[in-house]
Amino acid sequence: MKSVKHLLDTKQVRIISVNKNISVLDALKVMTDKNISAVLVMDDEKLSGIFTERDYARKIILQGKSSKDTLIEEVMTPNLISITLSDTIDKCMEIMTEKHIRHLPIVENEEVKGMISIGDLVKYIIADQKQTISQLESYISG
Question: Which residues form the CBS domain (predicted)?
Answer without folding.
Answer: 9-67, 76-132
